């Protein structure tokens, strides 16, 4: 067969290239540009090489923020994933109850991040907040501005409240796509509730869970508005997560060079973790298949 | 181990799914439930299995009333239209799962799983996951799960619908072979008359939640009790023509006359509805008393090596089932031959009053 080569087809990808250039590559390159220079004003700049990167990687405050960030992300994932699956399992399957519960569960997802922070800020106040006041009345000296433990617990609780519905919704849709015949077959086999979960529901949920965990990891790793509004990163720096450190550095102190270097490190961490996670899951599935082959 | 259904009714939210079905299935029998979609096949199977309980009536198994007993306490198995297997378990573990739950010893499990897998030709795939297999192999795995546990009743809910023609033929033969050696009750739901005939055994014809007729498959096919049963058990449906017997003549729609045959002579004069099977009409006379009719072609469908013809003249429409591939132009005239000695007669209420004696093949 004779193939006609028509290189004009390359023009078709031009709009895409332009779009990606302006939306991703050029902004990213600007950051790269800043990260290797010390810029004083439009005409005064010095090339610094990897100096900012070295400084950032060795900064104990930032190292602490990275650890804090990982601790936070892993904690909320560990709570939200099982809890979300659990909620999806007990949500009604049909009828008006299903719609009602669905709307109720979705509600937190519709609230803007900084509003969530404000809601919880008021909720946890000792004088007028329902939770803060109740805990104090019960005899627990609850105070998120003084106790790091209280602050952490509250931020985690807030994130769980805000984002568990996402996992629950994903799982709910995954569960709904399982044909009824599977459950019938399991009943005929006399399989237990646990066996139904382990051998039918969980395998059928794997795909939505991969998406859910990836989304939640990236989301939680970039968390900013909620803790900023709720605790402002305190008490001390106990709830200062990476985005907030970065914002303080870039906007507050105008340290453009170090914060550019730090942004790139931050970006690479998210990319790396997501990639590792995704590859690990995909390999697990491949292994399963190869075991069988 | 017999299964007796006594006057079963099932009504859900004011909608009747099953209306007064009584049926007695013998141990070791192969039973086909034949009916169109929504005729109640699946509902009836669910009642037999104990997945649902009837609104009224009783299910008696082996002399014991099991009407309200849950499926978990009965010994049944079921194969579905979709290929239902545990997605995370290998074929081996899938087939073994009912035995594991029944706490059978490991050696016994291994022996039985391998035996069943060999019988169903899936022994090379025992270590694979179901989703890595072809549709046919997945369905074989599901059948393996159903057959491995020596259930009292094995239910098949249109298991071959999603498989291709060749596989279906293969499966049907194997199924019959498998069940000829077993003493359980097999129940097989299908929408296709041809599949019921190919499977043999007994057939129950269902329509709108009611049982029209039950008996040996050929018997039900050749001796329909009424028009509905004849229509349900023929594809394309049997041709029904209004006609009058008067004196020594039969008249179809007051135009087409032919001398009455000996076997129809016993019928008193009057109005009848006559049934002629699509496959009994032919392009050339098969007997000297066949009568020729001029028709014109509405539609000709070729399916495999058969031709389905829809024709009409000013009096009536006919569906014709011809062997072999024939090429017809739409609107073309065609001469067809009616076998006057293969005509069913039904009375005004639809009950059969005459069954032709020389039916020959199907």
Which chains have the largest interface? Answer: A-B, 22 and 27 residues
Q: Write down the secondary-structure element order of chain A.
A: HEEHHHHHHHHHHH
The fold-level CATH name of the largest domain in chain B is Rossmann fold
Q: Write the CATH homologous superfamily of chain A.
A: MetI-like
The second-level CATH architecture of chain A is Orthogonal Bundle
Strand order of the largest sheet of chain B: 6-7-8-3-9-10
How would the global form of chain B be characterised? Answer: elongated
Average pLDDT rating of chain B: 87
According to CATH, the homologous superfamily of the largest domain in chain B is P-loop containing nucleotide triphosphate hydrolases
Q: Please identify the top-level CATH class of the largest domain in chain B.
A: Alpha Beta
Shape verdict of chain A? flat
Secondary structure class of chain B reads: alpha+beta
Please count the beta strands of chain A (DSSP E, at least 2 residues each): 2
CATH class of chain A: Mainly Alpha
Report the average pLDDT across residues of chain A: 85
Q: What is the distance, rounded to the nearest whole angstrom, between the alpha carbons of the first and last residues of chain B?
A: 33 Å
- Strand percentage of chain A lies at under 5%
